[in-house]
UniProtKB/TrEMBL annotation:
Active-site positions on this chain: E106, C360
EC numbers, comma separated: 2.1.1.192
Protein localization: Cytoplasm
Chain's role: Specifically methylates position 2 of adenine 2503 in 23S rRNA and position 2 of adenine 37 in tRNAs.
Ribosomal protein in keyword set: no
Species this chain originates from: Pseudonocardia xinjiangensis
Cofactor(s) needed: [4Fe-4S] cluster
Gene3D superfamilies: 1.10.150.530, Aldolase class I
Any Pfam family hit: Radical_SAM
Protein name as it appears in the record: Probable dual-specificity RNA methyltransferase RlmN
First-level EC class: transferase
Length: 368
């Protein structure tokens, strides 16, 4: 099996236009001055965008028409929906977005009895080259801007509020588990997390505890995130506890081995007080052997601690034409039982959207 080379720096493409969501409060006021407007006009615009979830300047009637025209430069269309699909009786909605330069990214809005969650992309494509992932096999096009990430969340929050999931709901959770490796786009992702979690008018006001940032294991970036003071959940895409297989399944393991990744996860849990999630896509006859379940439980108990970690077992959503397939239910159940026998919490993720290609990258690949 030949893996694609890892790509940490995105290829150079045209930069997305500056957007309100790219700016912190001080920057917003400075830009207002550049536009010849008093600082409070930028705050008014932010209250509409973050507080009322609207980017329609014509609806902002508390702003004079001339001011609205001037402020249009801060709300350029960054991501435009080109395809939307739904399933699960309307409780799962996937959107394929087109950027200003034609790049594609995906998000998935999911409704549950007690919450509404959106899974967002942080990059167009991905450079981590995991062979069982549609996004990884497509390669990296470019990083998404902070504004492009926040726009996915704002539009999902507005859709949930307006009943897109069947009845009005408040968006409560944001997971960075769509296209891309979030920590390879570190600066923009952290800025997006701040916009998502800060209260209006500076952000969308979603609790940091409702935000999850995933990574395949970029150890220096995990340590950097731990020092940010953002109590978000860290999700580590481990997928196997042994280096020999992980070198192939998650090629970044050739730089940072399993023990290094788990040590970084422990440091993150200690620094933030947040339990780390270990993501494990269960693949038939590849990483689902009983001995791997035993080893996983043992390593997590020893290196992180049973109270600081949770295993999120993911039944694989195969990509079209892939050699990979999901493990049988009996194998899955035994795997869960063995991890739990080590004292480590382990649950199976609720699968959504198989009929609408909801695994990250599948919809974009089908429309390429």
């Amino acid at each position: 099996m030949t893996a694609l080379p890892l790509v940490f720096d995105a290829p150079r493409r045209s930069t997305p236009p500056r957007h309100l969501a790219d700016l912190d409060p001080a920057d917003r006021r400075a830009v207002a001055g550049e536009l010849g407007l008093p600082a409070f006009r930028a705050d008014q615009l932010a209250r509409h965008y973050f507080g009322r979830l609207t980017a329609d300047l014509d609806a902002m009637t508390d702003l004079p028409a001339g001011v609205r025209d001037t402020l249009r430069t801060l709300l350029p269309p960054l991501v435009t929906p080109v395809l939307e699909q739904s399933c699960d009786d309307g409780a799962t909605r996937k959107t394929l977005w087109k950027g200003h330069d034609g790049t594609r990214a995906e998000s998935v809005l999911m409704g549950y009895p007690d919450r509404a969650t959106v899974c967002v992309s942080s990059q167009a494509g991905c450079g981590m080259a995991c062979p069982f992932c549609a996004t990884g096999q497509g390669g990296l096009e470019r990083n998404l801007s902070t504004g492009e990430i926040v726009e996915q969340v704002r539009q999902a929050a507005a859709a949930a509020r307006d009943g897109a999931l069947g009845s009005p709901a408040r968006l409560s959770n944001v997971v960075f588990m769509g296209m891309g490796e979030p920590l390879a786009n570190y600066k923009r992702v952290v800025a997006a997390v701040r916009r998502i979690t800060e209260p209006a008018p500076n952000g969308l006001g979603i609790s940091a505890r409702g935000v999850t940032v995933s990574t395949v294991g970029l150890v220096p970036a995990i340590d950097k995130l731990a020092a940010e003071g953002l109590p978000v959940t860290l999700a580590v895409s481990l997928h196997t506890p042994d280096d020999e297989l992980r070198d192939t399944l998650v090629p970044v393991n050739n730089r940072w081995k399993v023990s290094e990744v788990l040590d970084a996860a422990r440091r993150y849990a200690q620094a933030t007080g947040r339990r780390v999630s270990i993501e494990y896509a269960l693949i038939r006859d590849v990483n689902d052997q009983p001995w791997r379940a035993d080893l996983l439980g043992k390593l997590l108990r020893q290196q992180i601690g049973t109270k600081r970690v949770h295993v999120n077992l993911i039944p694989l959503n195969p990509t079209p034409g892939s050699e990979w397939d999901a493990s049988p239910r009996r194998v899955q159940d035994e795997f869960v039982a063995r991890v739990q026998a080590a004292g480590v919490a382990c649950t199976v993720r609720d699968t959504r959207g198989r009929e609408i290609a909801a695994a990250c990258g599948q919809l974009a690949a089908s429309q390429a």
